[in-house]
Amino acid sequence: MSQAPTTFEEWWVGSYYRRFVEREGVPLYEGSILEDLATLPLKDWERRGGKAAYTRLGNQEDVNLQIVEIPPQGELKPEHHMYESVMYVMKGKGATTIWQEGEPKRTVEWEEGALLAVPLNAWHQEFNSSGDEPCRLLFGTNMAQVINLYHNLEFVFNNPFKFTDRYSHSMENFYADEGKRWNLRLFATNFIPDVRKFKLDPWEERGIRTSITRLYMGNSLSQLHLLEVSEGTYVTAHRHGAGAHVVVIEGGGYELLFQPGDELNPEKRQKVFIKPYGVVAPRTNEYHQHFNTAKGPLRQLAFRGWVRRPPSMNAKGEYDPVGAARSDNALAYSSKIRYDEEDPKIREEYYKELEKNGISLRLEPVDQGGA
Ligand SMILES: [Fe+2]
């Protein structure tokens, strides 16, 4: 990739990211949905050891997932890179060591449910501390975007620049800090020991008994969030630019996906049952809607990319329609269908699913679903 092209095919490359994954020798999963990242087949990964796979979901190459498994007592080879990365632990327990060149190393231990920032271009190495269980990790990254932008692996993986504003050993509490809640629904942190227990803020505008917290991690512009839909409820359908990856981390239910124009056509709605660790990545402007049909909450972790702070939010963390209208940012642009605007068949079908599962709690029969 770093050499000059010699054939037309090499020169007229459609996707440097795709070419990179081929070179890695591990699977690339495409489409919009993967049922279970925890059991997704992986292949031996020579570059770092362990096993791995990559994704190209939602027909876009801005945000991608990297799924990695480390064998019992195993470790990955260290790396550093010019793309952003946040790690979620799907299975097992272990530790990550991070450092800047010439500085002492720092180690943080984790187990299932942990979410951890990998600071930009800092060295990092992952270890499995279990003697008999593999551990499985999920990295949400903008690797695809960065590799396509620079298409030079030497620059992406061997750049000596130290972003000491993102991480330095002098930041003593980098992973120990309990984080800062800047405002309603806005939280900056580098490590959450278990996102399944993390308290979220109410978000009635999206759905009755729904809550969210947006996470800024690794001193980056990460757009991650944790969304929780309570038992017996679902969120309003909405759409935005492609790139969002919604990973189920707790509970179960289903998703509806449909294109603008098909709002009232049940035949055109794609219904996908979800459970941990399924992922849904809607395509550009595709409506998506989350339904909780299980006992207890449905909790999802969404990777949405690393772009500027959403201008659709005012300083209090509230939705700001003026800012949203001004925005030229596809990810920040969002459009929703209120409960009272949606096809009534959607709710009828939802009630049937609740009955099947013996859930008696329901949304109020008439409500507006927020602004
Ligand atoms: Fe969304």
Can you walk through the features of this model?
The chain has 371 residues and is mainly β. A hairpin with a 4-residue loop joins strand 16 and strand 17. Helix 2 crosses helix 3. The structure holds fe (ii) ion (FE2).
CATH architecture type of the largest domain: Sandwich
Total DSSP E strands: 25
CATH H-level name of the largest domain... which superfamily? Answer: Jelly Rolls
- Overall domain count: 2
Structural class category: mainly beta
CATH class category of the largest domain: Mainly Beta
| Helix count, DSSP H or I runs of 4 or more residues | 6
What does the overall shape look like? globular
| Poorly predicted segments | 325-333
**Which ligands occur here?**
fe (ii) ion
What percent of residues are in strands? 25-35%
Helical coverage, percent range: 10-25%
Mean pLDDT: 91
